[in-house]
Specification:
globular; 10 strands; alpha+beta; about 375 residues; binds flavin-adenine dinucleotide; 13 helices
Amino acid sequence: MDFALPEQTITLGQNARKFAQAELSADIAQRDKRGAVDTADWRPLWDACANYGLLGLALPKALGGGGHDIQTTVHILQELGYGAPDGGLTLGLGAQIWSMQMPILEFGTEAQKADILPKLISGDMICAHAVTESHSGSDAMALTTRATKVDGGYVLNGEKVYIGMAPACDLAFVFATVNPDHGAWGVSAFLVEATSDGFIRKDQTQKMGTRTLPFGALEFVDCFVPDTAVLGKIGAGNAIFNRSLEWERRFIFTSQVGAMARMLDDCVSFAKTRDVFGGPIHTHQSVSNRLADMKLRLETAQLMLWRAAWEADQGAWDMARAAATKLHISEAYLASAMDAMRNFGARGYMEDAEIARNMRDALGGITYGGTSDIQRQIISAALIRS
Ligand SMILES: Cc1cc2nc3c(=O)[nH]c(=O)nc-3n(C[C@H](O)[C@H](O)[C@H](O)COP(=O)(O)OP(=O)(O)OC[C@H]3O[C@@H](n4cnc5c(N)ncnc54)[C@H](O)[C@@H]3O)c2cc1C
């Protein structure tokens, strides 16, 4: 493995950081407080990211994408995360790219790819990843949303909860069962347009962190979708779900690793300038140890991310490694957000403080994409099998 990034990739990263600082940072404390209720708060930023080319980085040029490999894409999104203090936006972008676009690229028909991916890249269409239900979170394949075969397609009935972009989506990547008796093997994936009759976008749900990301529930009431809306084959939903989660677990924290680097830089600056007991706080070993721990977490998170990117470029798949990547980075992000909170004292705890917002944003990461408990279970099950 070569860790030296090409000059061109470094430049792309520097530009992405500058773009995020200039275009995605304004008014973040107020937008976070308002909580994505107003489309005007987040939509212009989403469109700016699309216009910049961020939503198509890893997709083929023929579809309007940037045609970059995964290592380059990861570097650019990491730098974006350094520049953008908006964890809701970067989570939304990451989910769109990794959990939705990549599986559609992989499993979609030529017609689906040609129809949907250019619109997702341009930002004209926003997709939601609709898996979780009130009774099936960790046990995702215990879902009960039903897809009943009818002439020319399927009729969906059910409700999905805790869905990023739900109140604003134009399309949903929905997992539903065509045969509950077959368990996970009865599940199929559908690409459902929000204009379909019986597609109901519920109101915005407020959450403690990543508040700039629209969030809510989707309900399907006798919602007809044509046969052409099936992604992959009927009954292949479990395999498609696993692949989309493998993308998600490897890369959804890419921009958050950039945020970890920003938090560390902020903590170092503060430790040099905040005087307590007659000197800067970095002279107290408890504070400097926390800086060292944050640096270590950043380095290990980056290494896992780079390995995951290298593996993806080789076409190598391994759910247990993806789980380890997700587990380590999400917990490292949270631990470092907590250390930043300790270092900043009361300043970090104030409502509008970036340190407090990082902490709230980081807390969601131990749950979405599967909880840390579930990642540990996947890793240990692979060890026992080996
Ligand atoms: C910010 C955010 C964004 C999200 N975005 C989306 C989205 O876009 N689309 C979507 O479909 N979902 C989304 N989710 C939902 C997320 O995927 C689920 O919340 C997650 O899978 C956990 O499910 P649950 O909340 O039902 O917890 P539960 O499954 O009820 O788990 C509760 C507790 O039990 C533990 N537990 C459960 N089973 C086991 C087990 N077998 N072994 C050990 N411990 C176990 C869990 O680790 C947890 O501690 C999002 C969630 C958050 C917080």
